[in-house]
Amino acid sequence: MQHNCTAFLERNADVPEVQSALKSVKFLTKSKDIFLKRLSFEAEPADFAKFLSASKFNKRQSKEEQHGG
Amino acid sequence: MEDEALSRMSLTEVSAAIAKRKVSSQEVVRNNLAQLEKHGSSLNCLARLFSEYVWPAAEKADQELASGNSRGRLHGVPLTHKDMFYRAGQITACGAKICERYFPETTATVLLNLEQEGALDMGRLNMVEFAYGLTGHNEITGDVRNPWNPEYIPGGSSSGPAAAVASFLSYGSLGSDTGGSIRFPASCCGLVGMKPTYGRVSRFGAMPLSFSLDHIGPLTRSVEDCALLTEIISGSDPNDSTSSSRPKGDYLTELETGIRGLKIGVPTTYASGASPFLAPVHPEVMREMEKSLAVFKAAGAEIVPLELPDSFKICNDLANIIAGAESSSAHANWLKQRAEDYGSQTRERLLTGFLVSAVDYLDALKLRKEILAEFIRDVFSKVDVLHVPVVPIPVPTLAESNIQNNPGFIEYLSLLGHCTRPFDYLGLPAFALPAGLTDNGMPTGFQLTAPPFEESVLFRAGRAYERETKWSFSELIFQ
Questions:
Q1: Which pLDDT value is given to residue B402?
Q2: Which of B250, B238, B173, B176 has the alpha carbon at shortest distance from B208?
Q3: If you placed Cys at B276, which of B26, B156, B219, B308 could pair as Cys (CB 3.0 to 4.6 Å)?
Q4: How many contacts (CB atoms, under 8 Å) link A and B?
Q5: Annotated catalytic residue, options B24, B181, B202, B212
Q6: Is B82 a catalytic residue?
Q7: What distance in Å separates residue B156's CA from the closest CA in chain A?
């Protein structure tokens, strides 16, 4: 499917909507690449959910630590 | 009770009136059905009614109350929702031709949660095709119109819910938010809208668009109504592996406790005329933002200027990478077999996703935790909530924002969600509230965001703002 779609977009490269889509994706990935150096080798997508889920517990924990509890 | 007075009640008011048997569930349903049939078509907000389902349910609700039995806080109250929540055996069309005869076999968890509290499911409201767009245009089912002025967009993709709730045709409605689709229409129609923390509300039985970014939440006319609905639909769900195991939120207990000492962060870049977003915010919108901050200050909050981390700006791009890849994957089969059945704008957006490489997609997902950690550290270590706009420009007309007639608007189109999309990417709770009117006489709103699972502080702040402004939706001027 991706191959077909890419071929379709290449064939229609002079259509404004296709130009816009290509430009858009190129821009998005370029923007992302600037921040890529922040990622460690071990980083994985599931880290987000784990961090999100644990955030309040961390906050509580740090308060307890501050109060020596 | 007069029909108009009944329609203009808030969700909590009508629930209380039914519970005290001042009005029957059947009277409320009759009035609501009549209003929807009378006004729903002029706004094009109504997809379909479940008349055959809701009448016996209302009759049963009245009988139960007469016997002294109440199911819960929404006993006998009819609600209509965005046309993307599955009810077994009832069509869920998702604003699309492709699904016009789709009969789901399951019922959405959020609908079951509402039913447990006694709510009646009365029908479905129009939406942007497959929820992929923020303006409210739909080439398949027609454009929904804004009740404040039918020439203007209602915002999307929860366009029908926003139009129906704002015009008193629904006491509240569930929508979805992948890039701003609850908050954006709430802002365009002068409503309250909550996008809860990622994982707070189950998405089981709701049409998927982008599973890493999809959120479900309510649009209502008051903060209390929004808190009530969010509380009811929140909680873990074994059918949704992304739902959080945290206990359900309690958003009503502390609703009236005020915000004295609450620290509200405001990005410093505004002062220099710049923006923490991809583009500047329109001066008329900024003017209303300032007014809302003055209200918070008067209510006892401390306004704290602060700098947002650099990485915040790329959240939009990263969200677009994820949404592109995931939505294209979800629609791959239909795009192969029934591409001509999509509206041209939806098809074009979906095709773009096929250009995203697997590496770019995974990078965007992996960066999420890093950027969220940085955001929490730099923002929420200093303030309790962050205050930013919802829609960066005054609400545009349907004509000027239709890129088929006005191709030049495409430049704006990509920027419309730049104040809302970052919070879908970060998974943070974000609460949209009405600010005031821009010079075209249309509403504009602001949003407050908080640390993960801190919806409670958002409702408390929203309620303090609502009380301070003595804002009453029924007093707003619209036709």
A1: 86
A2: B176
A3: B308
A4: 110
A5: B181
A6: yes
A7: 21
